[in-house]
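[Meeting: bench + compute handoff]

Bench side (C.D.) handed over the final construct sequence. Compute side (W.E.) agreed to return the predicted structure before the next meeting so the bench team could plan truncations. Sequence as handed over:
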Amino acid sequence: MLSARRTLLRPGGAAAAALVALGGLGACGAAPHHNAAVRPAPAATTPATTAPVVAVPTTTVAPTTTAAPAAPAVTVTRPPAPATTVAPRTPPSAFPAVITAAIATFTSRPAGIEAPITLPPTPSAASAVSAQASGLGGTAAVTLVATPTPLAVNDPSLAAGAAGTTDLGTFSTTATASPAAAGAYVAASAAHNLAACAAPATPAPIGVPGATTCGTVVGGVVDWTFGAWTVQVEDLGAPAAPSAAASALAGLLAAGRLPAAASGVISVVAPASAADGPSTTASIQWQQGADVYSVRTDRGAAAALALAASMRPYPG
């Protein structure tokens, strides 16, 4: 900072010395004019000293903008996508010729259609398997029939039940709008086809946890669940619980003879006598995605399970 100098005129300085000199002249030299006024020496004054204003150059400093530090590079290690195992589609040539011929008759068929890769065994009197095919309301169905000689698909004699023919079973695929619709379809089928208890249910002695038995208007039944499956065995025409048939079916299920399913229904109806029916009817229906698959046979629970287990996606 700059300092300002000051020159102070103090009494006893040069002005005072001048006054002393004037006084000396009055005493030793010519006398002053008596009318002359002796002017008093002006009082010593201290001039106001104003510090010079020093213009300090103003430096405008641009505000310092601190840039945000760059985000550190983050290395994201993504786990490898799980390998998707796609089951290889079975070529049409791998299916029995009668299956290929029956499916070829459909002008429109469900995209997820399935068919058995093996044929059910035929009675000893038959030497061939023929087929009837129908496609209505989004359902593609094929009925396999044992015949003495091979017949063309939908041969009229098959519908008439000609002598020497035996129904081996029916398989079908029904397309729905969504998996939820397919689940509702299976649930509605179960409500329609399974017999309802007419009396309170009691535990069934078949060695299956949660199995119950009750009487219905058509006969005694045993009910239980097996994973995603609802199971019922009915003794048609008899009030007693069909414990032996239910135990046999539980053993087959434990052996793993079921297709993968989101939900499913298994119904086995065994006639109590010949008057109630010629044979045991078994039907299996299950859901996979938006499609519903069904098999049915009059040759017993084991035959129905074998037919269901042989179902494979048919290439389209």
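W.E. noted at the follow-up: The two ends are 98 Å apart (CA to CA). C.D. will use this when planning the next construct.
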